[in-house]
Design goal:
mainly alpha; about 290 residues
Length: about 290
């Protein structure tokens, strides 16, 4: 892996890790659905412009309904779940829950598609979900905490479903086509809900700016960066960004929001990352 590829990988981890920071800032003011409507709408405009310029949107012809379903489970619903969870959970905590995506990918592969589960992958699953339990346990003493943790894990589960769906249904379709088309349909899905749930007062420029950054940088630019990494270093190496996201998520939350970082949280996060490492190194399909 070249120095440029390593830099891009770290940059991508930093960008995706920051998305939890921006959701934590903006979601309490805007609400989850309006915030994500902004996010997917802006990201769709960015990616669709690039895809149209390259002629990649033609590959979506005749498959828009299927891409709309993919957009719902890969963007619209999980983004909203994480935004809603971010109203209660610290940014760093939410980013660690996001690290469970490869664990759900492996678990779904075993439960639904009967994919082989090597011993090392089994150990990774046990470690990963054990770390999640240890991390979430202090948050389970109240209804708000329980709901937020369930929402974050539900989002990770949907990402896992989307990974399997893309692997089986979109073979040969350009990744930019899948992302731009699914984000366009997600925007159409969320727009009426976003308008209906728009806050009564005028949102601050700070909250609106966070929504715009989530769309342009954390989704549009991040996807383009990820696609370039996929082409240059392959899927197995590119998915190692999974390990960097929670590290940056915790760091940004502590640095900009002064979120406490406890020893228990660090140990639980380390166990989750270790479990995820064992699963990903066993070549579990990653999120595209």
């Amino acid at each position: 892996m070249s120095l440029r590829d390593r830099f891009d990988l770290v940059l991508l981890g930093a960008i995706w890790g920051s998305s939890f920071l921006f959701m934590r800032i903006a979601a309490p003011e805007l609400g989850a659905i309006p915030l994500i409507t902004i996010r997917v709408g802006v990201a769709a405009a960015v990616l669709a412009a690039v895809a149209a310029a390259r002629g990649d949107l033609r590959a979506a012809r005749g498959r828009w309904l299927e891409l709309a379903l993919f957009g719902a489970i890969n963007s619209a619903v999980p983004f909203c779940l994480f935004a809603w969870a971010s109203k209660t959970l610290p940014a760093g905590f939410a980013s660690v829950l996001n690290a469970t995506v490869p664990l759900f990918v492996a678990l779904l592969g075993l439960a639904i598609w009967r994919e082989r589960l090597p011993r090392i992958k089994t150990i990774g699953l046990v470690l990963g979900f054990g770390g999640v339990l240890a991390l979430a346990w202090p948050k389970l003493d109240g209804r708000a905490g329980q709901g937020a943790v369930a929402a974050g894990l539900g989002a990770a589960l949907l990402y896992g479903c989307a990974a399997h769906h893309a692997k089986r249904r979109f073979v040969g379709m350009p990744a930019l086509t899948i992302s731009s088309a699914s984000l366009l349909t997600s925007t159409l899905l969320l727009l009426p809900l976003g308008i209906a749930n728009w806050p009564a007062g005028t949102p601050s420029w700070r909250a609106l700016g966070c929504g715009a950054v989530l769309g342009v940088v954390c989704t549009g630019l991040a996807y383009l960066l990820y696609f370039r990494l996929l082409g240059r270093i392959g899927a197995s190496r590119a998915t190692t960004v999974t390990f960097l996201v929670p590290l940056f998520g915790v760091a940004w939350g502590a640095l900009f929001l002064r979120e406490p970082v406890t020893l228990a949280m660090l140990l639980s996060g380390a166990v989750i990352v270790l479990g995820t490492t064992l699963v990903v190194r066993s070549k579990v399909p990653g999120k595209g």
